[in-house]
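To illustrate the input format used throughout this study, we show a single complete record. The first block contains the structure-token representation of the backbone; no residue identities are included at this stage. The design step must infer an amino acid for every position from geometry alone.
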């Protein structure tokens, strides 16, 4: 996997539904690798932003480019909060997303399952996995497609601590240096552990963007200060 050498540029990005603005006039220049954590209250626009990045939604205006080309759903992988599992074995869930199955890909799939603690369950019906195991499978399945950008929408919400630890460990040790990750979370401590940079969204607008260190030490807006302190209203 070749990492992105340039920054991701977002210009005048907006998204509206029935006249209601859900994301407004977003302009950002983001690092082409590492983990960008999206923070903000429920309904702030984080998932909308993530789906626009993934190509799952079409912006009403603006553009998202990297290496002077438009990003698309073909260059990214999206993992939602609710695992999407196919009615087949764990290993076949992995192989289903591949355009072409080779012995090398099968080996890689098994390696990913081992890293996610699922190697002993590769022949098990994936629908019988626990919630955390299903989410680990979804992450491994996204990785095997070799995306340039990995978009994770609260992937550790409502799963057991062991699964959260495995997912975080994998992201930190195995993925962040080779591709770009966007990660939505409401867990401030998780954001502190994972983030290289923070994008803070408030009522459909990006009002802060900085390194994680600067954001947590010296947030520039009152909204961010309230959010960090737990006062989200």
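Output of the design step:
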């Amino acid at each position: 996997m070749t990492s992105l050498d340039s920054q991701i540029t977002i210009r005048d990005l907006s998204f509206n539904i029935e006249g209601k603005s859900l994301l407004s006039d977003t302009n950002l220049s983001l690092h082409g690798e590492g983990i960008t954590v999206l923070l903000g209250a429920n309904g702030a626009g984080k998932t909308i932003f993530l789906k626009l990045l993934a190509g799952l939604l079409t912006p009403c205006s603006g553009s998202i480019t990297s290496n002077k080309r438009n990003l698309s759903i073909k260059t990214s992988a999206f993992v939602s909060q609710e695992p999407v599992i196919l009615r087949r074995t764990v290993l076949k869930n992995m192989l289903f997303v591949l355009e072409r199955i080779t012995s090398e890909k099968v080996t890689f799939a098994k390696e990913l399952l081992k890293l996610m603690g699922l190697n002993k369950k590769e022949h098990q019906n994936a629908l019988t996995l626990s919630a955390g195991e299903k989410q680990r499978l979804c992450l491994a399945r996204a990785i095997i497609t070799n995306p340039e950008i990995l978009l994770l929408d609260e992937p550790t919400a409502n799963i057991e601590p062991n699964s959260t630890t495995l997912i975080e460990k994998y992201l930190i040790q195995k993925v962040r240096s080779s591709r770009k990750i966007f990660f939505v979370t409401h867990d401030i401590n998780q954001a502190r552990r994972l983030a290289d940079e923070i994008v803070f969204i408030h009522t459909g607008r990006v009002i802060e963007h900085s390194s994680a260190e600067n954001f947590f030490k010296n947030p520039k807006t009152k909204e961010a200060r309230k959010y960090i302190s737990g006062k989200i209203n």
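Structural context for interpreting the output: The first strand starts at residue 8 and ends at 17. The longest helix spans residues 161-175.
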